Amino acid sequence: MTDLSTLKYSPEHEWLRLEGDVAVIGITDYAADKLGDIVFVDLPAVGATVVAGEVAGEIESTKSVGELYSPVDGEVVAVNGEASDDPSLVSSDPYGQGWLMKLKVDPAAADGLLNREAYLALTGGGA
Predict the structure, then answer these.
(1) Has residue 82 been placed in a domain?
(2) Residue 97 sits in a domain of what CATH number?
(3) Which residue range or ranges hold the Lipoyl-binding domain (predicted)?
(4) What is the pLDDT of residues 68-104, one digit of tens each?
(5) 20 close to 6: Cβ distance less than 8 angstroms
(6) Which of 60, 73, 63, 83 has the alpha carbon at shortest distance from 23?
(7) pTM passes above 0.85
């Protein structure tokens, strides 16, 4: 299981894990819970450039449609085809098999994101 205290978080409820100069990104369990049963994910194309704070994809659930924001600037180097084929992974394992995209980034870009304690404060401890 992922140590959630090692991740960085965005105010839009994405998490980020750095692996060298690659950032693995997904949505938090808090966001997945609020969305409900996820039925579709629309992810950016490999090679696309995404910008911090801007929409990079879409997540549809039985309750609503949510937007996937990029927490940092970067180039998409991978997307999770398993999550596209089985969107329930995003709900059932948001920090593991439910990751959404990998970006080539400047690792310093993650410095401005929230740590676990700050994210919990943002969500009222509900994450």
Answers:
(1) yes
(2) 2.40.50.100
(3) 22-104
(4) 999 999 999 999 999 999 999 999 999 999 999 999 9
(5) no
(6) 73
(7) yes
